[in-house]
Amino acid sequence: MDKKLIVVLGPTATGKTALSLELASALDGEIISGDSMQVYRGMDIGTAKIRPGQARINGKEIPHHLIDILDPDQEYSVAHFKLMAEALIREINDRGKTPVITGGTGLYINSLCGGYLFLPDSGKAKDFREEKERELAASGTEELHKQLREIDAEAARRIHPHDTYRVIRALEVHHLTGQTMTAIRERGQSLPPVSGGVLLCGLIMERDMLYQRINERVEGMMKEGFVEEVEGLLARGWRRELRSMRALGYRHIAAFLAGEMTKAQAVEEMKRDTRHFAKRQLTWFLRDKRIKWFDAGKHSTLRDLKEAVLKEARDVLWEE
User: 70: which DSSP letter?
Assistant: First the structure.
C-alpha cells in the first residue's frame, strides 16, 4: 500500500521508545506500537510500556496506538497486528501526519514491509494442539522441546523450552504442512524492496553497552514493582499458562512467586534471557539489508541521533 512511514526497530534496550517520541514530535506524527506484548492491559513494567505523562514532548502529547487494547487471555498475532496497523497507517497519513512504528518484533515489521509468509491457521489442528497440551501436562516442557529438535533443530534453537506456545505451534505447523517452520519462513524471507515513502531505521550499539543497559533495565523493573505487577495479574486470574504470561520476565517472576526459584535467581535469569533475546533480535534484523542502521551509542545526545535519522527520513520519505 502507498504510505509515508518510519519504522524504528532493533534489539531491546537500544532506546527505540525515546527516539520514536522525538521523531513523532518533530514530524507531527503518531506512534504505532510494533510490540507483541504492549497490547495487554496490566502488563506495563515487564513490557517497558510508555506511562502516562511520558508521551508528552515539548508540551505536546504524542498519540499512541496498539497499546492496552486486550486482556492477557486474548489472542494477538502478526495477522492481527498487520490488519490493525495498516488501517492506522492509512488513517494517520490521511490526516497529513507521519506514523512512526516502534518495536522489536521482527515478524510484525516484515508483515508490513514484505517478506513474511503467513503460517497455517492454528484452528485447523485443534485436536493436535489439545493432544500436545496433554503431553505437556503429563511429561513437561523438555519432552515437547525434544520433539521439536528432532524435526526442526533451528526452530528448537530459537525457541526456549518454556515457551510452550511457540514450541507447540512449530510442531503444529509441521503436522499441518509436512514442512518445518524454519523452511517455511526461510522461503518467505525474500525481503523485497520497501515501497517509496518507508524508512526502516535500526538502532544498534556496542554489545557491552547494550548488555549493561539490559541489566540496568531489569534492575529498574524490579525497583518499579515488577513482582507486585505479576502478583496482581495472577490474583486477577490470568494463569501462568497463558501465552502472555509466558513472556520474557513474566514467566521468571511467576516461577519465583510459585517458589520454584529465589528472587535473585529470577533476576539473573531475566537478565540472561533478555541478553539472549536481544542477540536473536539483532541476528534477525541484520539479515534485512533494507535497514538503515544508526549506532545509538556513538551519538552524544538523543537530539544528535534524532537529527541523523531525520536527515535520512527527509531523503527517503520526502525526496521529491
Answer: B
The pLDDT, as a whole number, for residue 320 is: 42
Q: Check pLDDT > 60 for residue 124.
A: no
Residue with cell 489439545: 130
Same domain, yes or no: 35 and 136: no
Domain residues for the domain of 156 are 122-187
For helices 164-177 and 181-188, what crossing angle results, to 10°? 80
- Domain identity same for 241 and 182: no
pLDDT in tens, 165-196: 888 888 987 887 777 878 766 654 444 444 55
Give pTM, 2 decimals: 0.78
Task: Give me the phi and psi of 140, to 5 degrees please.
Answer: 90, 180
- Choice among 95-99, 127-131, 223-227, 291-295 with the minimum mean pLDDT: 127-131
Of the candidates 286, 291, 292, 293, the residue with the CA atom closest to the CA atom of residue 205: 293
Q: What are the Cα distances from residue 225, in Å, to 44, 49, 247, 260, 302?
A: 10, 14, 17, 20, 27
- Rounded CA-CA distance 192/113 in Å is 8
Residue located via cell numbers 535497514: 291
Grid coordinates in use for 17? 521508545
> Under a CB-based contact definition with an 8 Å cutoff, are residues 2 and 94 in contact?
no
Mean pLDDT of the chain: 88
Same domain? For 181 and 231 the reply is no
Do 38 and 149 belong together in one domain?
no
